[in-house]
């Protein structure tokens, strides 16, 4: 009778390997613990949740009280001036366009002297010898629905109308009957609505439930801006206080809706709040020191003329705070998530190690975000910069003008707040996760290995990355 030897035992797993493969033969763990990067955040202890709630619940309650106390109940009414955006408008449609010589449409216009060396001379010559358009416009809304009037379009006009085009017309009831209506703009509602629909579809398709929550948060932001911030400022409330309360409400709604009611999101909220306070302090100091009035163009001049009680420099500071909020949310959430994932990958890492690893990630984020913010402001002010370039003004002269100085101060204050948000949020997140009792020495070992093994892997991973 022969006996068969038992099969040899399977080879021992190396201490640094991940969990065994599943039934299909696919392994789960490798490298730096990527199996944790897409899962839900690990829950924190009950004690830590109470500490975070003790800080954020009074803050949220103060925001709600501020909303109730300063709620404006609508923008104050005023008599329309007929200037700029402060005009009564209606919808209209171009029903007919006829091309005629400009000299036949304006026979009383003085003849040009032939000098085309100046823009005025070129315009006069074009209007005297060029072909103009005579457009018949039909009002399609309001009490004068169906009424028609004519509009003369000069050859050098930047807006050339065509038959069937929908336009916006301004109505001035005090003007003579033939001059009560005039074309002010093109109706762009359809292409803008289509573009918004494509944007929303892309967000939902790619982001799925997170995308839907992001759209809800975006709607809440517009509601707070439209029904609280703007009317409250027009009612005479302090723009800085209104901006802080409104931005805080937007921050709480956006972050918790998009990222869940978790300790990780709460740390991002705290980091954003501290950064906003820093931006508010710096803005209040340097806007006053640089004597920036916030009244630099026709629109701000019109606002000041209609509502002299509005603090225009405070309005400028409110714009800085609200404009910085969106980028701050992105930075603080990213830094908090990075620290949380590092902690899950290596629970034995102390808060100093977490901070050093998180700040290395944050440095790359700082470089890209600051450049993004500067280019965004530069792009918005590009026509203004072109004017200074045409005038061949020196860099010092351009920077010293209030129009440009306002954008420079706005950019630098926002950038300082963004830069500061990285170490602040990273330090907060590192302190929170390292102080969490559920991850202390007495906590159960993670499923993917003991803390000692994870520490070994984490150390090797850091050396390879460095």
From TrEMBL:
Protein name, UniProt field: YibE/F family protein
Keywords in alphabetical order: Membrane, Transmembrane, Transmembrane helix
InterPro entries: YibE_F
Transmembrane stretches, start-end: 51-71, 190-207, 214-234, 240-258, 270-292, 312-328, 366-391, 411-433
Top-rank taxon, per record: Bacteria
PANTHER family found in the cross-reference section: MEMBRANE PROTEIN, MEMBRANE PROTEIN-RELATED
Disordered: region residues: 1-43, 78-130, 436-466
Any Pfam family: YibE_F
UniProt biased composition (Polar residues): 106-129
Compositionally biased spans, kind Pro residues: 1-22
Listed Low complexity bias regions: 436-453
Skewed-composition ranges (Basic residues): 27-37, 454-466
Record carries keyword Transmembrane: yes
The keyword Plastid appears for this protein: no
